[in-house]
């Protein structure tokens, strides 16, 4: 497994792989890898011959008051995990490699509608930063397949729409959320939680499961379901950011006849913002 830092080195390595008729897979990450990321790598390895994992904490997708500086950077440990997983190339560019003229004035990819609301409401500009860096990574690597986690459900929808609208010749694939034994969705940000917060954190998923049961049981008074869950989360010690039911395909607000629903939540425990989601099929 090679770790490459420059775009030119990576392109040269990928040109050789392509000459050997290898199908290229890409798993974009911000590093600090956990089993959820490794599941993405495994998915890419099952479907392609040459898997590139990018590790880049993208400043363009962080707001002014967010955790860019404290975001965990653990390259050596990540490299060990990727070697064990069987990845072929780690692409770990610097900010200067990715934004040599700086981020001010850089071309932005903006995906309207699907980027609005939910995480887009509390993180203005976040999805422009994500779409722009993912667009760049897709252009740099030119993979046949790129794999993203479904924990960031809205992000995946934004990336799918961008790839579709810009006719990018890549298959975008989602991979299911990987959870700890107690149900908490794995996330690099879980490392910010105190022991007490970590004990409370699984209540977020439990709340989504309760909503799921109510929907499956036939309840359709959506606003009341959401309000009750919001009260329960608050009582458990969370500060809910949003809790919402959306059409799982369009991400538009749910309607009474909707068959595939996604329950989406973001909530703070102290200063740590956790997100999670759960899909419900009522077909
Ligand atoms: O999900 C992430 O880790 C990031 O948003 C991504 C897709 C790697 C873009 O920086």
From TrEMBL:
SUPFAM superfamilies documented for this protein: Nucleotidylyl transferase
Pathway the protein takes part in: Cofactor biosynthesis; (R)-pantothenate biosynthesis; (R)-pantothenate from (R)-pantoate and beta-alanine: step 1/1
GO terms under cellular component: cytosol
Principal location class: cytoplasm
Active-site residues (renumbered): 37 (proton donor)
Binding, ATP: 30-37, 149-152, 178, 186-189
Key words, A-Z: ATP-binding, Cytoplasm, Ligase, Nucleotide-binding, Pantothenate biosynthesis
Location in the cell: Cytoplasm
Family designation: Belongs to the pantothenate synthetase family.
Full protein name: Pantothenate synthetase
Taxon lineage: Bacteria, Pseudomonadati, Pseudomonadota, Gammaproteobacteria, Pseudomonadales
Gene that encodes the chain: panC
